[in-house]
Amino acid sequence: MSDLFPPFAPDPDEPKRRLFKPVPVRVIIPNIITLIALCLGLTAIRLAYEGRYEPAVIAIVVAALLDGVDGRVARLLKGTSRFGAELDSLADFVNFGVTPALILYSFVLHELRALGWIVVLVFAIAMALRLARFNVMLDDPHRPEWKKNFFTGMPAPAGAVTSLLPLYLNFLGVPMEAILAPVVLVYLLGLAFLMVSTIPVYSGKNVGSNVPRHWVLPIFVLSAAAFGLLVSFPFEMLTVITVLFLGTIPVGVMRYRKLDRLHAQRPSQPEGEPPPAA
Questions:
Q1: Interatomic CA distance for residues 170 and 116, integer angstroms
Q2: Domain boundaries, the chain
């Protein structure tokens, strides 16, 4: 009986089949930025439990800045992907939900024992729910264009940076003793409520891209001054930014309601007819 599978010599010129398709570099770069931010968030936990709260806070702030960069870099390089979106969401949960809560627990909330830990859990879970809702709303095709200029609830990076206000005040000389732990607890619960609420928060995403010529130089000067102040007086500036951001929430709510009323008063467009120019 002849051999059904006779031996043969492989062709040395035959091209090797690739197991996986190559990934473009433009897709990898945004994910690397996200992973760097995630490393900063995890390192902040270690720094906090070593008692080095100042570098821990700076790590969280830098992670928040990188979170605002990675998505823009992905869109600029046309390297957006479903993998990158999921990775960014998971990194946001760790950096802005778990890490700030653990830092505050190590700093002052441990004085309240089990009650302080429960608030840590509430804040982290509120962040997870907020991120899940954000991901779902991205796929809503019926959302009006004007609503894209508002977040539903407090955004994740802002929630993290704002939650660290007790640490900013402590660095500025305000003693955060055990007697103030209940105040920090109520403050953190309030932020958790803002994140899972439907309160509109102004995002500024759809601000016009064209700037009047006479505003160009003042914007350059103000940007340089703000950067210099942030580097020279980081915790003073972070305190001011936090207070200003919290103060803009009622303004954003009033603006949202006004636009909602104007949108409701417009007559519905017949199907197939283009909407009127703004």
A1: 19
A2: 25-206+215-264
Q: What is the pLDDT of residues 62-92, one digit of tens each?
A: 999 998 888 888 888 888 888 888 899 999 9
Contact status, residue 150 vs residue 256, Cβ threshold 8 Å? yes
d(CA 53, CA 50): 8
pLDDT tens digit string along 34-58? 999 999 999 999 999 999 999 999 9
pLDDT the model gives residue 82: 84
Strand intervals (E) in 129-199: 150-152
User: What residues does 17 pair with on adjacent strands?
Assistant: none
Phi, psi dihedrals of residue 139, rounded to the nearest 5°: -95, 10
Whether the predicted model's global pTM rises above the 0.90 cut: no
**Could you identify the residue written with the tokens 């283009």?**
274
Q: What is the homologous superfamily of the domain 25-206+215-264 according to CATH? A: CDP-alcohol phosphotransferase transmembrane (TM) domain (1.20.120.1760)
Q: What letter would DSSP give residue 207? A: -
The two structure tokens encoding residue 237: 């500036």
- Which amino acid does the sequence have at 12? P
Of the candidates 162, 159, 93, 89, the one whose C-alpha atom is nearest the C-alpha of residue 128 is 93
Distance (Å, whole) CA 198 – CA 153 = 5
Comparing C-alpha atoms, which of 157, 156, 177, 155 is closest to residue 166? 177
8 A C-beta contact, residue 104 and residue 134: no
What is the H or E stretch that residue 200 is in?
Answer: strand 200-202
Q: Which of 133, 169, 125, 126 is nearest to 151 (CA)?
A: 133
